[in-house]
Amino acid sequence: MINLPKRVFIQEVVLRDGLQNEKQIVSTDEKLKLVDRLIACGLRQIEITSFVNPHLVPQMADAEDLCNRLKQREGITFSALILSEKGLNRAMRCGMSHVGVYVSASETHSRRNSNRSVAEALAEARRLIRKARHAGMNVRAGVMNAFGCAYEGKVPVGKVTEISEALFDTEPDEICLADTSGLGNPLQIKEVLNRVRPVTDDIPLALHLHNTRGLGLANVFSALEEGIFSFDTSLGGLGGCPFIEGATGNIATEDTVSMLHSMGVESGIDLSALIGVSLDFEKVLGRIFPSLISHLYARLKADEP
Amino acid sequence: MINLPKRVFIQEVVLRDGLQNEKQIVSTDEKLKLVDRLIACGLRQIEITSFVNPHLVPQMADAEDLCNRLKQREGITFSALILSEKGLNRAMRCGMSHVGVYVSASETHSRRNSNRSVAEALAEARRLIRKARHAGMNVRAGVMNAFGCAYEGKVPVGKVTEISEALFDTEPDEICLADTSGLGNPLQIKEVLNRVRPVTDDIPLALHLHNTRGLGLANVFSALEEGIFSFDTSLGGLGGCPFIEGATGNIATEDTVSMLHSMGVESGIDLSALIGVSLDFEKVLGRIFPSLISHLYARLKADEP
Asked: Residue B124: CB partners within 8 Å, gap ≥ 6?
C-alpha cells in the first residue's frame, strides 16, 4: 500500500501572497493580530511580507513597520519574499532571518515581474542568495511558473530543472517549485518532481500551489505520494499573483489541513481554531473566501439546535 | 512512470443529482434543451431523472413527461435512478433502458433515505436489480455513503465490500461507489477500491464523487491511478443529497474534463462548448455555480481587448 509522509510542514502565506492582491489595505495592527492567532492555531512558519515596490504592491508598504513590530517567538519562523538587492537590504535592516528568492521559468513572466530575462534574473538571484547566506540568513530559493505560465502556456521541464540546478549550486536551505499561474496538474507534479529531484540532491523540496482550476488539493495529494512534506498554503484560499490575470486562489490552509488530517497525516494545526480565524478574517476583508471547509463548518454549526 | 487510463467515460448527472436539491423548478422544456446541448458537447451518458416521490423531490415530478419526450439517439444512454419497485415500474412504463439502484452503507442514512435497514434495503435492491435485468434493462448497482456518512462518520470498508459483493451476485452491468456525503479522501479511495475490486471481479467500477470539502478532483486523480475510468459529474458542480445536510456539490463536469485533458486523458467532450452551456444554465437558475474553470474562462474572455 501507499505510504504518505506522516507529518507535513505548512508555511502560511496569507499575509504575503494572500493579501498582496487585495485592494483593501489591511492595517499593520490587523496583520499582527492575525499572526498571533495563526500561531495560536499551531502554525510555525509564516511568510510575513515581501520587500517590494510599495507603489506596485501597496498592501506590502508596511513591510518595515510590520517586521519591526513582530514578536520573535521560540520555534516560529517569519520569512519575507524579496525580488531585488534593494529588497534584500531592506530585509536585512529589519533583521529578518529567513528570505525567499524566486526566479520565473517563463521569459514573458520574468520580464513582466522583474524586467529581466530568465538568465538575468537567475544570475541576480544567485548573487542575492549568496549574499543572504553570507549574512547568515536562511534562504528558500524558488522557481515561479514551474508548472506552466499564464502568458506562455507550457513551460519545458528542462527549463525548470536547469534553474533548479543553478539555484541548488548556491546552497539554499530549501528549493520551492511554485505553480504561480495555477496551471499544474497532478500527473505533471510527479513528472516535474521526478526530473528536479536528481539535480537538487538532498535539499528539501517545497511546493507552492494554487487552486485556480480546482486542482490544488489533487496536486498536494500527488506530491505527498512523491514524498513531498512541505507546502505553502493561504488562510481561506486567499491569494494570487497581481501580475498574472486570473491566477487567483492559493490552496486554502484549512482545506489542506482537513485533507491531511482525514488521511492521518499530521500538520500540528488545530483545524477548528483555524476555521474560526478564517471566518473572522472574512469580516476584516468584508468578503467570502474560497475555502470550502470553513463554510461547511459554519453551515453545519448554524443548523445545530 | 505512472499510467493513467487513456480515455474516461463521464456520466452527466446534473439533471438528476444536480437539480434534485434546487428549489427553483426547472421546466421540462428547459431540461430537454439542456439535454440537447450536453449531447452537442460530446456527453454520451446522461442520468436524466429519478422516479421518486414527487412530493419529496418536486424537481423530479416531471419524470414521466421528460422521459417520454426524450429523443432517442444513436450512442446516447439515458438512465434513471430508482429507489423502489414503484419507481422501477414507472421507469419500465417509460421504456427506460438504463436504471441505477443504490443501497446505503450507513444504517442511519438508509433509514432516512428509504425507511429501511441496510439489510432490508439490500434485499429489496437485489430483487429490483434482478427484475430490471429480467426485463432486459441495463443496471448500475451502487453503494451510497461508501466513503463515510454525514450522520455516522466513518463507514467500515467491510460493510462496503459486503454490500458490493451482494450486488455483484445479481450481475449488474456496473457497480458504482458513491461518496454521497462528500467525506472521501484520496488515500481512502485507493483503500476502498483495493478492497472492493476482488469481490466485484471484472464488473466495471464507477465513482460518484462530491467536492464538499474540496477533495473531489484529488479523489478522481487517486481513482485514475487505480485504473478507474468511469465517473459521475455534474454541470457547474451543482448537486447534493437533499436528505444530508451540507453534502452539497458534485464534482463539476467542466473542472473534471479540464483536469483530464490537461493530463492527456481523453473524455470526448468539447470543454469550451461545455463551459458555454454551464454559464448559460447559470442564467436559468439565476445563480453562480461552484465550478472554477467556467468562471476563469469567463473572466479571461471579459478581459480580452
From this structure: B84, B85, B114, B116
Bridge partners, residue A10, by sequence: A231
**Nearest residue on chain A to B292, alpha-carbon basis:** A213
Which residues fall within 8 angstroms of residue A204, CB to CB, at 6 or more apart? A173, A174, A175, A230
d(CA A149, CA A107) in angstroms, rounded, equals 9
Q: Do A187 and B220 touch (CB under 8 A)?
A: no
Please, which residues 222-241 of chain B have a Cβ atom closer than 8 Å to chain A?
222
Residues 7-36 (A) with a CB less than 8 A from some CB of B: none
Q: Are residues A263 and B2, on separate chains, in Cβ contact within 8 Å?
A: no
Question: ipTM score of the complex?
Answer: 0.94
> What are the pLDDT digits (tens) for A134-157?
999 999 999 999 999 989 999 999
> Which cell numbers hold the place of B11?
456520466
Q: Residue A241: pLDDT band by 50, 70, 90 thresholds?
A: low
Return residues 244-303 of A near B (CB < 8 Å): 245-246, 249, 252, 255, 258-259, 262-264, 291-293, 296, 299-300, 303
Chain B contact for A157 (CB, 8 A cutoff): no
Using CA atoms, how far apart are residues A212 and B60, in angstroms rounded to an integer? 34
Given CB atoms, is B213 within the 8 Å cutoff of chain A? yes
Strand segments (E) across chain A = 9-12, 45-51, 77-82, 98-104, 138-144, 174-178, 205-208, 230-233
pLDDT tens readout for residues A36-51:
999 999 999 999 999 9
DSSP strand pairing (A230-233 vs B9-12): unpaired
Which residues of B are less than 8 Å from A220 in CB distance? 218
- Grid cell 534584500 is found at A88
3-state secondary structure of B76: coil
Scored b (16 or more CB within 10 A) or e, B18-37 reads bbbbbeeebebeebbbbbeb
Interval B27-75: pLDDT, tens:
999 999 999 999 999 999 999 999 999 999 999 999 999 999 999 999 9
Is-catalytic flag, B149? Answer: no
- Nearest-CA distance A10 → chain B (Å): 18
* B218/chain A closest Cα distance in angstroms: 4
Residue A105, phi then psi, degrees to nearest 5: -85, 0
- Whether B292 sits inside 8 A of A212 (CB atoms) is yes
Average pLDDT value for residue range B201-208: 96
What are the structural domains, with CATH classification, of chain B? 9-302 (3.20.20.70)
